[in-house]
């Protein structure tokens, strides 16, 4: 099979492999002859499309033809444009879909004293302000001997913020950092401040609220004689505390998994994202939770999610989230459809609607149970929408701050980065998996190759996720790629 028509109403199909000019390809009952060379992941017209008519993929309009398009022609940016605008009215048209039957799934995790569960037992060093990043890095380098027994790692998460910030930016920095302090993957946390920053220790503690004094330690560098000596002693205390925890059997219902895509291509919405969506449905059926973010990459496909909001209240919150992000674009003098990236287009994605319809496939078919503001923690079991941008590292940090134990990151082009939470990279195509085995953890190109169905790949992914939750290291973990990036929107003093 060289092409796939995703939905019966689609007037285009996607090339699973490169198609040569003159080659005949068939989708369902339609056979066309390629009028030109069509790269893998790109679209081929199945029927005549007149100028001004909608180009339909996933059963949804994903572009408007800018010229007449004949069957067999390549459909891309040269003959299609976005149909999006900043406006739009939304109506609640509730739909439900059945979920698969799943039971008896479990993993080996760490049960914390407050009842929460982690899938790693690490010590995290968090700078409260960027000017002491070097201290944090040096402390981590000097104290790797503490990684022993059940203590699985010692990491610092540098960032440039915490000072010269005002209003919402300062609040977002404070929220993300305190969320990371509370993350159950950390068996111990050392928070380091300087002593004169905008984000004072008092403000930080107010945001943090109650905490376990054995698990969380603090240091202000200006108030100690030797910050490296003092910090090392605090890390020794944290390592002794974290070392008391051991893995035990935990039901899969405790898992919170973040859903993310980046470096997408024309196969993202056909292989990796639908596989992740089917995994999401399975985890939710088992009582667990998933989190979908990247609001700008919902534009043009938001109604797919809105129709699955479990109540009108959740629907209204979802609409607010999307409209607030559109306003954010407008306030900065930007159009909402300035997306996809050059790499996305090279991979076969033509418009933001095209990208978004593929992006939301990660949300599966479950009901949307809650809508969360940026970096707010997950409170309800099921599919959650999390406000935030699409930038890979910003949104992966956002997902971690919201409480995701692990992030499933689908990609058609590849990327090496890792979030604080274990970051599983899923390739949309087999050539990427074979080329970048040191980046990619899981291959869904098998679906395009015809060796697995979406459901078979999703079942395999579920077992893989349970393995990672039980301690199997991802490629980013093995390489030590762990970073954070915090969203900002305001002035720097």
If you had to describe this structure to a student in words, what would you say it looks like?
With 493 residues, the chain is an alpha/beta fold. The protein folds into three domains: 79 residues, Archaeosine Trna-guanine Transglycosylase, Chain: A, domain 4; 123 residues, 3-Layer(aba) Sandwich (Ribose 5-phosphate Isomerase B, Chain: A), CATH 3.40.1400; 228 residues. 29% of the residues lie in helices and 20% in strands. The chain is built from 14 helices and 23 strands. The strands form six sheets. A seven-stranded parallel sheet has the order 19-20-18-17-21-22-23, with helices on both faces. A four-stranded antiparallel sheet has the order 1-2-5-8, with no helix packed on it. A four-stranded parallel sheet has the order 13-12-14-15, with helices on both faces. It is globular, with a radius of gyration of 23 Å.
User: How far apart are the termini?
Assistant: 58 Å
Structural class computed from helices and strand pairing: alpha/beta
Count of helix runs: 14
Strand order of the largest sheet: 19-20-18-17-21-22-23
Q: Could you name the ranges where pLDDT drops below 50 across 5 or more consecutive residues?
A: none
Mean pLDDT: 95
Radius of gyration, rounded? 23 Å
Task: Give the percentage of residues in beta strands.
Answer: 15-25%
Share of helix among residues?
25-40%
Number of folding domains? 3
Total beta-strand segments = 23
Largest β-sheet summary: 7 strands, parallel
Q: Name the overall outline.
A: globular
